Amino acid sequence: MAVVKLLGAWLSPYCCRVIWALKLKAIPYEYIEEDLSVKSPLLLQCNPVYKRVPVLIHDGKPISESTVILRYIEEIWPQNPLLPSDPYEKAVALFWIKFADDKSPSISKLYRTDGEEQQQAAKECSEMLEIIEEHGLIEGKKFLGGDEINMVDIAFCSVAHWLGVIEEFAGLKILEPHKFPKLSSWIQNFKSVPVIKENLPDSDKMVALLKRRREMLLASKSN
Amino acid sequence: MASNDAEVKVLGTWSSPFVMRARIALNIKSVNHEFLQERLWEGKSQLLLNSNPVHKKVPVLIHGHHTICESLIIVQYIDEVWSSAPSILPSEPHERATARFWAAYLDDKWFPSMRAIGMAEGEDARRAAIGQVEEGLVLLEEEFGECSKGGPFFGGDRIGYLDIAFGCFLGWLRVTEKMSGIRLLNETNTPRLLKWAHGFCSDDAVKDVMPETEKLAEFAKMIKGRVKGATPRT
């Protein structure tokens, strides 16, 4: 039987995306946690261009970059489809996945910066949320994918979980329920899906690690 | 789904490499289409603002009553809809993933580095940007060796997805070479890519949509002038 391995880091939303896709399709895999401060020879060999997780290894062949991995998983294991089959609807889904890829880094900028830079990141996050609220969410549908969770929902995981955690410890309030009612409702629906709920990084552990990282980053900036 | 007979239009500009991707893909599939030129410096058309309200950017593919945005997504859509014509994406899943990986690399890392050469302030910044571009070209030279399987293109015997994703930047690459005096594609470091570039630009699907280097260089000077004029120096 073909072997599937996933090189990942528990904190990474990009790794969670892949884990959820594998679990939603009931694909057995071996998970290898990478210590990102000391990258393994396997990781460096599998992803020499970016040297980062996630990396999926299938039949000994590595695939890097979470969105590329998700598309690959979808094509090899078509059960429980995560993308529409209609070409136009698929193109719309891919548009939103790309939007999530392009804009999500603003969320991690929130904990990596302070002062004006952080304010700018907060502004970018807010603009991203406004666009999803206005254009991405269909009235009456539980998920970005419609009635069922799909790759678009998975792609916006940083908004669903990481943003809330970072807001709390950074003392920011960007995703306010009264400003973003559809998005707030989507987050609840998304996090209620059993595969998601059972495979979300622990918030307390996240806060502890992100706080440490923030202190280190800001300390090295002022040196 | 819009039928294959429905009207096809591309909303774009002659200078944009991203717009070129859509037009090349349609040419490969021999799809008749109308090219609607935006004059972005004069303000965006209502059609553009309606078709791409999120980004307000070209290219936009209009197929019947559907609008599709983002150049690589457009190429994949075209490949799927006109499936009986020559394939653009590789048929094997791992090769497809590899093509997508490199296309994303070009957009996320390589092309921004190339743009940075033109916009760099100071020799150090310029040298750093040039270094990044050259590094990327060496990676792509290696990738070409692996996926072309002896053929003239990344796609093998015919132009494929990665050829389109990368080849669309050749006009701007030549302008950068002209303005910097550096041969980014050369016999020493990138002999295969040098040959590939010539073959790509001569291909029937490409030659009428690839802008002339001179025209593009003039356009680049004009944009640079406007950008520098608009951005006050503090």
From TrEMBL, chain A:
It catalyses: RX + glutathione = an S-substituted glutathione + a halide anion + H(+). Belongs to the GST superfamily. Tau family. It is found in: Cytoplasm, Cytosol. One of its GO terms (molecular function) is glutathione transferase activity. It holds the Pfam family GST_C. Keywords: Cytoplasm, Detoxification, Signal, Transferase. Its EC number is 2.5.1.18. One of its GO terms (biological process) is toxin catabolic process. This is glutathione transferase. Residues 1-21 form the signal peptide. Residues 2-81 form the GST N-terminal domain. The keyword Signal applies. Residues 86-209 form the GST C-terminal domain. InterPro entries: Glutathione-S-Trfase_C-like, Glutathione-S-Trfase_C_sf, Glutathione_S-Trfase, Glutathione_S-Trfase_N, GST_C, GST_C_Tau, Omega/Tau-like, Thioredoxin-like_sf. GO terms for cellular component: cytosol.
From TrEMBL, chain B:
It catalyses: RX + glutathione = an S-substituted glutathione + a halide anion + H(+). Residues 6-86 form the GST N-terminal domain. This is Glutathione S-transferase. The keyword Cytoplasm applies. Its EC number is 2.5.1.18. PANTHER family: GLUTATHIONE S-TRANSFERASE U17, GLUTATHIONE S-TRANSFERASE, GST, SUPERFAMILY, GST DOMAIN CONTAINING. It comes from Hibiscus trionum. GO terms for molecular function: glutathione transferase activity. Residues 92-219 form the GST C-terminal domain. Its main location: cytoplasm.
